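Q: Could you fold this chain for me?
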Amino acid sequence: MTSLYRLAVIRTADGPLAVAERDGRMAPLHPLLGDAQPLRDLGPLLADWPTSSARLDAAIDASGAVFAQAAIDAASADFALPFAHPGALMCIGANYHDHIAEMPMPMTPEYPYAFVKPTHNTLSASGDGVEAPKGVEMMDWEAELGAVIGTAAKHVSEDDALAHVAGYINFNDLSARDWVASRPPIGVDWVRHKAHDGFAPIGPYFVPARFIADPQDLPVRLSVNGLIKQDSNTGQMIYGLKAIIRHLSSIMTLQPGDIIATGTPAGVGHGRKPPEYLKPGDEVRMEIGPLGELVTPII
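A: Sure. Below is the predicted structure, expressed as structure tokens.
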């Protein structure tokens, strides 16, 4: 059986480079797969994920010596975005029992409560600084499990839902709570709340789904300046990933490359007493299971 490997894109002097990581060592993907040209983005692998996944397993199983000898030290890697041009980024709100309990207006949604976050301006890689937006006083963190779709899904059942997931990734749903705290009668302005530049840090690794036995049993941890703020488990979700995929696929066809962010547990700044918010000079670190540590400096 293939042992755990993780995929990433790192920055090099020659540009972005897709790599496989195993036991702290990284090897470029293109020679492992027998390709002449460097792979600059993991997105193309999702065009035919079942075939890509099988090729990766076979290539990495046959290349153990590469990781032991001429590989790159993962500890020194400068990470780029794993998916430079993902599809839709769909986020589920109010989806953890412990998070619902801590918020100023607790409520339990009757179905997975979703919104779409733009990707052309919000995505940022691990290590990239995210600017605290002008006029925002309540910048908050939200550690979330992201599921990356690998095969098209429409009207799927919960029993079949996870078969459409290519893999998993860390996601920090940065939020400007100012427009939650003082929302007008028409409701929350989700663009002002969620769509600022850099407000979707993802990475550093993409872990194929075969290595996550149960997406509802993963530890979730986030710290700010070394102090733990969120420490929970994906088992706290109100609607698990199967139910989320069933719901979303009843509305739209989920396509390879779409990312589903599954909500955040307790410990966000807005729910703390007294509330806490991010400011320039802060550093946010989050980690879910084997997905690596996503680092986000606030500048």
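A (continued): The CA atoms of residues 143 and 172 lie 5 Å apart.
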